[in-house]
Amino acid sequence: MGDWMTVTDPSLCTESKNLHQYTSETKMSPSSLYSQQVLCSSIPLSKNVHSVFSAFCTEENIEQSISYLDQELTTFGFPSLYEESKSKETKRELNIVAVLNCMNELLVLQRKNLLAQESVETQNLKLGSDMDHLQSCYAKLKEQLETSRREMIGLQERDRQLQCKNRNLHQLLKNEKDEVQKLQNIIASRATQYNHDMKRKEREYNKLKERLHQLVMNKKDKKIAMDVLNYVGRADGKRGSWRTDKTEARNEDEMYKLLLNDYECRQKQILTENAELKKVLQQMKKEMISLLSPQKKKPRERAEDGTGTAVISDIEDDLGELSRESAWGLSCDTVREQLTNSIRRQWRILKSHVEKLDNQVSKVHSEGLNDEDVISRQDHEEETEKLELEIQQCKEMIRAQQQLLQRKAFEEERASWLKQQFLNMTTFDHQNSENVKLFSAFSGSSDPDNLTVHSRPRQKKPHSVTNGAPACTSKLAKSLPASPSTSDICQTRSCVSEHRSSTNVLNIAPEETKANEIGRECTNQKWSVMSRPGSREGCYSGCSSTYTSSHLERDTLP
Amino acid sequence: MNFSESFKLSGLLCRFSPDGKYLASCVQYRLVVRDVKTLQILQLYTCLDQIQHIEWSADSLFILCAMYRRGLVQVWSLEQPEWHCKIDEGSAGLVASCWSPDGRHILNTTEFHLRITVWSLCTKSVSYIKYPKACQQGITFTRDGRYLALAERRDCRDYVSIFVCSDWQLLRHFDTDTQDLTGIEWAPNGCVLAAWDSCLEYKVLLYSLDGRLLSAYCAYEWSLGIKSVAWSPSSQFLAIGSYDGKVRLLNHVTWKMITEFGHPAAINNPKAVVYKEAEKIPELGLGHLSFPPPRAMAGALSTSESKYEIASGPVSLQTLKPVADRANPKMGVGMLAFSSDSYFLATRNDNVPNAVWIWDIQKLKLFVVLEHMSPVRTFQWDPQQPRLAICTGGSKVYLWSPAGCVSVQVPGEGDFPVLGLCWHLSGDSLALLSKDHFCLCFLETKEEVGTACGQRDGHA
């Protein structure tokens, strides 16, 4: 159990050599080794006593050795080796008794020391072995601790995983329970419903049984009959007819007719809806194209725009498509697809354009308003205000001009009418020539509008002129186109516009006031014709309203 | 708004004539026909027993009175008061009776739904239709009166028969893939027939006039299904109200659901307006305070004035917990009605019984919720314009239009618990029915009603 350590006195180094000799020779158990050592330690004393002791004291230095020993012993507390001298000068005699006592004392001491050493050595050995033992225990325990720690971590990990699993399972269980509860509720409600129905049916069944029983028992049956004073005629007044195969077939026919009508109606509705939506899409496409057309783009943007060329080519493509579409009547699948694809393209371009603008705006805001190309919002607003004012002014000017033109025309009319009057009154013979002259003077313009405008006062004249000759007016009436034809002209005009408008949404607003032809034109005719087929009356009423307005204006003349 | 005086009535039997000129009402076994404008009695007929059902013929010339206990139907003529007709079903018994659209045939359903007898007033012919189904809505006529669809059950299977009303010829007969067919209804355009199953199975089947199955729709399985069904007057939509508290709209082009409307008790929609009926606390002067309150005061409090108030923010409505172990529980959408122009849909969720939900069909969104202090009994749309009349069993009638809403107390001494309503075809007047009386409410023109409310203008 461990190594036994021997503690040797360094002064006995020679001895130790011998000891080593002995120890190396005899490899025995430690206890026997120790005893050997003890013996060895003691044996050399007996065997080599002469060699050892002769080294200290020889025949020559007896006195010196005695004195030295005496000194040493007295320092150790032993009595002196010399006899008590009577005088100082005489040589002290060795006290043999003292020497022997000292020797005995020393032997006793030696023995005690040896014993003590033994006990100390045994204790040492014991402690050493204890220490070894403890150290080995410690190492083992440390190992055990490590392993148990590792185990614990492993177990903890497992525990965590199991808890996780547990939680999941709990959740699943809860879900399943909820579902089960739900299904149970459903089952319960269905069961109550079934029971309720069953009970109802059973009650009915019972009633039926009772009634049957009653009927079987009851001999006298109440007569089932209808008692009416007189039969009433049919609601539609027709006679009743027999039921034959022909009537069956007729019923089938009628039924299919009804169904077909319904489907046709719906199809019509869907077609008109489709047409409207397509129109809207086309309009959107046109507007988008116009928004994104290259002229409007700023040169800077164009340079920045990497897809500029692509955009331009797209726009050209779409413009081409537009014309093609309108020609094809928008009914094939391919055309429809083309339309939607081109709209998508345009929309993408528009989106990228708007995004770019947004970026620019944000850039401008961050950089400040020093950029030349981008004007500040205030300036922009000021500009728009100015432009609006200008527009207002121009509009007013135009209106004023129109009014003046009208007045002038009225004046001219009036003048001509007065002239006519005068002529009628004065020269009766020269009617024809005069009137023809007048007519030619007035019908100088080939414009149908002019004719229509002037025909009205011509018509009015027969009523207002009392002195005038009816013959002349009738001739006038003959020579001038009568009002129905003017309305024909109006009609043909509207028809033409309608026909055109059937393919496109148009807003026709031809303002026919030309500053040059002051003498000819008097009224503005504004036509707003929408494409809906159902609004023909609206168109006509539009025309007639302008005519009535002109008619009324005539009335105000003196 | 003017109210007429109240007249006697029994069994909530009060009907306007289809041409709008007359008003028929029943008092026990007497039938009283009045002129609509003057409310003067024009005719008085006496039947043989207590009347359970009255119906005008489509041309407003005849009225039928059905007495189920005696198994009798008596028909009276307006033009010739001395004309009489009595149909006795005898031992066959009678459970239902109705006119055919031409006004010359009467369809009687005998007891136990054994058969339907078609009696003719023009000829001596009688027709029988066997195996009619005893269900909620087993007979439906097309709006133009040409065809009759009838639910039948033979050998534990459901069938539908389509008859031509002019000669009662069977046009089509086909089976329906239903467990227990509960109702059938023609679309207003007369070309599509909707058939739906009982509440145990959610199934709606759409058939064309010639019997082809156009489409089948099922929203979910197992839970209780369809409670109510309504066609929009334009035939564009079919609204299906179910026990899960939702209304699903099917469109007529694809017969697929386009949207579903939920009816939660808590309304968070900021765009929907919620009107709550609140009591107007009568103002008391200090001198009138006394304890306990005198009887007159108590009476006044019970029939106190109330008005609609606009509730703001998220609103929660009163709910009713349905009894779990009873059949036909009080939950789900039980009442559905489209306005005459199809722009609005009014619904009621039976577990929030005090509220009426009004949906804007153009936008497919919730428009208005009206909550009352007692459960809504019935509501009906004005036949001419989008105006809804509601009654809750109290003495008030409630009117809603996009311009606003108003609650009007029915005048008169004592209570007039309004249990039913009936619009006149012109929308100018409304008959209010209570257990023993009825009165007419004459509405002014649209503008008047708008200003009378004064609640919220420009709401649309």
Task: Give the SSE map.
The complex is a heterodimer of chains A (558) and B (460).
Chain A: H1 13-25, H2 30-47, H3 49-56, H4 62-76, H5 96-217, E1 225-228, H6 245-292, H7 299-304, H8 308-328, H9 333-367, H10 377-426, H11 431-442, H12 448-464, H13 470-479, H14 483-501, H15 536-555
Chain B: E1 2-3, E2 7-8, E3 14-16, E4 22-27, E5 30-35, E6 41-46, E7 53-56, E8 62-67, E9 72-77, E10 84-88, E11 96-99, E12 105-109, E13 115-120, E14 126-130, E15 139-141, E16 147-154, E17 157-164, E18 169-175, E19 181-186, E20 192-197, E21 204-208, E22 213-217, E23 226-231, E24 237-242, E25 246-251, E26 257-262, E27 266-267, E28 273-279, H1 295-302, E29 306-311, E30 315-316, E31 333-338, E32 344-349, E33 355-360, E34 365-371, E35 378-381, E36 388-391, E37 396-401, E38 404-409, E39 420-423, E40 429-433, E41 437-442, H2 446-453
InterPro entries (chain B): Centrosome-WD_assoc (IPR052778), WD40/YVTN_repeat-like_dom_sf (IPR015943), WD40_repeat_dom_sf (IPR036322), WD40_rpt (IPR001680)
Subcellular location (chain B): Cytoplasm, Cytoskeleton, Microtubule organizing center, Centrosome
Subunit structure (chain B): Interacts with SSX2IP.
- How many DSSP-defined strands of chain B? 41
Q: Give the beta-strand count of chain A.
A: 1
- Biggest chain contact: A-B, 47 and 53 residues
Count every helix of chain A, treating DSSP H or I runs of 4 or more residues as helices. 15
Helix content of chain B: under 10%
Low-confidence stretches of chain B: 285-302, 447-460
How would the global form of chain A be characterised?
elongated
**Beta-strand percent range of chain A:** under 5%
Shape label of chain B: globular
On the 0 to 100 scale, the average pLDDT of chain B is 87
For the biggest sheet of chain B, the summary is:
6 strands, mixed
The overall pLDDT average of chain A reads: 70
